[in-house]
Amino acid sequence: MTYFNTTKEANVKPYIKKNRTQNEIIKGIIQSYKRPFSPKDVYRDYPIMNTPITSIRRALNTLKKQGVIVETGNKVNGLYNRPELELKLVK
After folding, report:
1. What's the pLDDT score for residue 21?
2. Which of 17, 25, 31, 41 could crosslink 37 through cysteines, CB 3.0-4.6 Å?
3. What pLDDT does residue 1 have?
4. Helix (H/G/I), strand (E/B), else coil: 8
């Protein structure tokens, strides 16, 4: 599991565990989708309130690097009416 220690913390074990949990939650969400999705969709369905969309995008990028999801090549309307890439689960 990847944890990006951007704040140079000495003990990152609790953060790695939280990171792993967030990735697993997001993976469960996207496995329930029967269609392509965007980060906005995951953000809307994420069960923990006030989670930053940037945190969800980070988890999606990790899942993309792991080969769990891929980009469709399409863009959809995201939060703040800005385009964002559409993704889909690798079957």
Report:
1. 82
2. 41
3. 45
4. coil
3-state helix, strand, coil in the chain (%, to 5): 45, 20, 35
Residue 50 CA from chain centroid, whole number: 15
Residues near 50 by beta carbon (within 8 Å), at least 6 away in sequence: none
Say which residue the tokens 């949990």 belong to: 21
Contact 72, 86 (CB under 8 A): yes
Distances (CA, A) of 78 to 16, 23, 27: 28, 21, 20
Which element (helix H / strand E) includes 18?
A: helix 13-32
- Local mean pLDDT, 10-residue blocks, the chain (91 residues): 55 56 90 96 93 93 95 94 96 76
Segments of 1-91 assigned E as strands: 69-77, 83-89
Task: Give the global pTM.
Answer: 0.77
Q: Is the dihedral of CA 33, 39, 43, 48 positive or negative?
A: positive
